[in-house]
Amino acid sequence: MPAALTIRLCALLTLLLPAALLGAPAARAQPGTAAPAPISLRIVGGLAGINQFTHQEEPFWTQELPRLSGGRLRADIVAFDRAGIRGQDMLRLVQLGVVPFGTVLVSLSAVTDPLIGAPDLAGLNPDMAALRRNTVAYRPFLEKTLRERHGVELLAVYVYPAQMLFCKRPLAGLADLAGRRVRTSSPTQADWIEALGAKPVALPFAELVRGLRAGSAECALTGSMSGYTIGLHQQTEHLYTMPVTWGMSIFAANGNAWAALPADLRMMLKQELLRLEQSIWADAERETGEGVRCLTGAQACGGPPGDMKALAPSAADDQRRRAILTGTVIARWVQRCGSACADAWNQTIGPVSGVEAKAR
Questions:
Q1: Does the reported pTM lie above 0.85?
Q2: Nearest alpha-carbon partner for 307 in 249, 205, 232
Q3: pLDDT tens for residues 161-170?
Q4: Which of 40, 140, 161, 219 fits a 20 to 30 Å CA distance from 186?
Q5: CATH number of 3-24+38-161+247-287: 3.40.190.170, 3.40.710.10, 3.20.20.100, 3.40.50.150?
Q6: Domain 163-246+304-329 belongs to what topology?
């Protein structure tokens, strides 16, 4: 194990272990004694400060779970980027059991395991309907892969609002990105941006505003509502509303931590997490359009109104999106992932997307 990861593991154990045994079941009460203490779960959630965490994940675990479980479960949750955890490490930490239950950003974990990022490749899903079809097609294979390869249980799939282009300077279409420095958050976003003649710049979400202000990037790919929430309308003036990716994440449990829970509580959690997933997807779809309206000042929002100029993608740019997907993004994904990934794609997403992956 790399030394840097070992140091982070020690720090995380110090953070997480004292409060509870990381989701281990409480002892059963003996007849005639008081009821057992609730089982305490430790959850590491998604990005801090974003609606998905503040409006969905955090209330579910801290407020709804005790009620849904009749008091048998309680949970504490912390966003991974406020817990000192790199997003790139989350899947590995869940696998090791250091994080027994956690939200894993696919874009970051796909750096080490490209296979899990297939449903949200850059340029694949121009709308929510396509994203739903491709995710449904791939989900059984994803569940099997996570269980067999990583020893974790897939419990939910989350998405953020559509990831769009925010730019300081005007652009009339994708061709105008040539030569610009564009913030990206995944290998396939970087592939897509490079195919346009632009230069991808890897910046964590927490450093996005600082990077734009400092001139490290001239444009940024991020969620429409996420961009409004962190004030990108105060750093950029032009919004190109083509969805490039959707910021998919998975909520997963360490296999041993999951198996240690009573069967009826596991069943309840699966049902309720599916409900949470559906609510998050509905919010992501709604907030995609709402984010654009907030950024452009078309509606009142929770903060200062934006005055960005929004540009919808042309038919020619939509054709270019698909051409880059087939000619560059999938080809490089297969190169990183291997021929087995091409086979998996062609058995799942390929038939519903009409895009074939060719083995190298």
A1: yes
A2: 232
A3: 999 999 999 9
A4: 140
A5: 3.40.190.170
A6: D-Maltodextrin-Binding Protein; domain 2 (3.40.190)
